[in-house]
Amino acid sequence: MSETSRRKLLAATGAGVAAGTVGLTMGPARASQARPTASSARESVVAYVPDHKSPTLSLMVGEREVVVHDRDLVTRILNAAGGE
Hints:
single chain, 3-stranded antiparallel β-sheet, 3 strands
């Protein structure tokens, strides 16, 4: 891969991550704001959506995996991630 292509890829990836982060944090206002609880994760969390048609996503929290079935959450993550 040429140096120019790498720069374009990194720039596009960085812009996509920034847009996704803004979309998740600046999403539509809700009647009640979500607040952390005593049992909230206190380490890095990665969300993995293996099938965009399924309501299932996996959350990798530290060294464990938590499977969640939430169509609305999957849709919001996919919307924030965007696409072409």
